[in-house]
Amino acid sequence: MKVVITGANGQLGGALQRTAPADLEINAIDIEDVDLTDDAMLRAYLAVEAPDLLINAAAYTAVDKAEQDEITAQAINADAVAVMAEHECKLVHVSTDFVFDGQSSRAYKPEDARAPISVYGRTKAAGEDHLRDTDLLVRTAWVYEAGGANFVRTMIRLMSDRDELGIVSDQIGSPTWATGLASALWGLIEKGANGAYHHSDAGVASWYDFAVAIAEEAHALGLLDRMPAIEPITTADYPTQAVRPSFSLLDCRETREILGKPAVHWRDNLRLMLKKEASLV
């Protein structure tokens, strides 16, 4: 089976390539291969390549920048998805917790009403609207991977340079290791899943909780020479251009049931990621 993966150089795109079943013909592309803001280029590429399966792991994820660059965010997060959905093959599309407003009192279910509160969230929701009944939508949150550009690696860099950090403690969700997400995607594909699903690692955390765990695990692995002081702050203390959902927990029970695998706690996957990160140093 011929598979095209977009976002080849991203965290998830790389993880999908590393975890792909050996019997698949993988063609992973990124901006230097096909510009997703160019509908004609993308349409021509798919016509020539004619994949049996298309996994869209590409996205405009610069949440704050998107507030002033909605045209590009719309082109990549929505318009390109519309072009992908024109192709006859199955489309697997990865979306985000940002399609919700963060006001729920429980974990968001795949069928819950969306109410995005940022340009990033609105354009990702618009991309979801182009999917067909035979396609697969998987929403995730707080993704990180060894060697990537993400919260974990940013925290390690800042912790190495500073004696004290203030980290937001009133935004709640669950971190997601890209390697685990990739494995879940391949599992859902193997099961022939269609429709909407959620995947994130088990457990609940604030960004503050996540940062404290990063410090502890990184220090234990020798990635940090010392433990910095980490203080909880509020969202109001750290204003950003884009509004973030205050509650991003995703209900992943249907995903775990169809895969038939127990959930892995986010801290266990963080430890695995940091061991890989240590091997890159």
TrEMBL record:
Q: What residue stretches are annotated with the RmlD-like substrate binding domain?
A: 1-276
Q: Name one GO cellular component term.
A: cytosol
Q: Which Pfam families match?
A: RmlD_sub_bind (PF04321)
Per the UniProt entry, what species is this protein from, by scientific name?
Alterisphingorhabdus coralli
Which cofactor(s) are needed, names only? Mg(2+)
**Family per UniProt?**
Belongs to the dTDP-4-dehydrorhamnose reductase family.
Enumerate the Gene3D superfamilies for this protein: NAD(P)-binding Rossmann-like Domain, UDP-galactose 4-epimerase, domain 1
* Signal peptide limits: none
- Classification of source organism: Bacteria, Pseudomonadati, Pseudomonadota, Alphaproteobacteria, Sphingomonadales
Keyword annotations from UniProtKB, A to Z: NADP, Oxidoreductase
- The name under which this protein is listed is dTDP-4-dehydrorhamnose reductase
Give me the gene this protein comes from.
rfbD
**Catalytic reaction list:** dTDP-beta-L-rhamnose + NADP(+) = dTDP-4-dehydro-beta-L-rhamnose + NADPH + H(+)
* Class of enzymatic activity (EC top level): oxidoreductase
